[in-house]
Design a protein that fits this description.
Strand order of the largest sheet: 9-10-11-12-13
Distance between the termini: 25 Å
Largest sheet: 5 strands, antiparallel
Radius of gyration: 28 Å
Shape: elongated
Strand content: 25-35%
Number of domains: 2
């Protein structure tokens, strides 16, 4: 039984590390959401093709300039040069915001009649209310509050201040983008992304293929080590199977690392996956070889005892 205590101890340490990593990830997700500011207003800028957005974060206000492509940069102004509008037009195409919900309406007849152009409602809206920490009154802090419409050579673009959900942007092709809240870091300006919903464009997620690769690599390396070992202790695979499962879970967590500031999660997740793969394969081979070595030692002792 003593031959198993070290592999089991190693496996326990790996499992505890994965559990701690999971809790770290949960805390990082919550802290990232708490750090997101509230986009309280969007107004026309001084230059053509520019809007100014106001962000409130930790009781302090900052202003950002956003161009008609959605690129943001920080600006230094003390007060809003104009009042936010709840309705704006480009020609006979007008947009207005609900003011008490995440909803934007459009009119093609100069504002005579309106239809819904974009909205988040029902259970999806309630999920956002539950997910954003310290929302307060959702009618005030999680609603479409002001709008700016710019005519462009290719049609028009729309900017909407959506409170805690950040800046909503409609491009010239008519596609709506939840950009998030502008912030600055080492590379200056980026957007803190909003909580993802099902209707958002989903990024390519290679997490599950990575989980399969890591798990199969660990089991395969153990199988190869077992094939070349003498004697073959098939029971050693009992230690490798849970190791592969724990490593797969760790890979899953690493594949969903939260964004930290301006750095996306994959910058942290990919190295963790590589480390998990290397350590897992090394441990799997060690488990099998250690079991074979222990068996050879036991057999020699039996032979010596029998020869007395």
């Amino acid at each position: 039984m003593r031959r198993w205590w070290l592999p089991l101890a190693v496996l326990t340490v790996v499992a505890v590390c994965c559990l701690g990593f999971s809790r770290f990830k949960d805390r990082a997700d919550e802290q990232n959401l708490r750090a997101i500011g509230e986009l309280t207003a969007v107004i026309d800028g001084d230059a053509a093709g520019e809007v100014l957005v106001e962000v409130e974060r930790n009781g302090r206000e900052s202003w950002w300039s956003v161009d008609d492509t959605g690129e943001a940069r920080a600006v230094d102004i003390e007060a809003a040069p104009a009042r936010p509008r709840t309705q704006d037009c480009a020609g006979r195409t007008c947009y207005r915001v609900a003011g008490d919900a995440l909803r934007v309406e459009v009119s093609e007849d100069g504002g005579a009649t309106y239809a819904i152009a974009w909205q988040i409602d029902n259970y999806v809206y309630q999920r956002l209310v539950r997910t954003y920490p310290d929302v307060g009154d959702p009618v005030r802090h999680l609603s479409s509050r002001s709008v700016v419409v710019h005519a462009t050579d290719g049609g028009h673009v729309v900017f909407v201040a959506n409170g805690r959900d950040g800046l909503l942007f409609r491009d010239e092709r008519g596609t709506w983008h939840r950009l998030g809240v502008p912030a600055s870091g080492e590379g200056c300006c980026y957007y803190e992304p909003p909580v993802r919903i099902a209707s958002d464009p989903q990024p390519v997620d290679l997490t599950w293929p990575a989980v399969v690769v890591v798990s199969v690599a660990i089991l395969g390396s153990a199988g190869i080590a077992l094939a070349v070992s003498r004697p073959r202790r098939y029971r050693s695979l009992l230690a490798v199977a849970p190791l592969a499962a724990v490593a797969g879970y760790g890979t899953y967590l690493a594949g969903h690392m939260p964004t930290v500031g301006m750095f996306p999660g994959f910058l942290y997740g990919v190295p963790l996956i590589v480390i998990t793969l290397a350590v897992g394969v090394g441990l799997a081979v060690w488990f099998v070889r250690n079991a074979a070595r222990a068996t050879r030692t036991t057999d020699r002792r039996h032979d010596l005892t029998a020869g007395r």
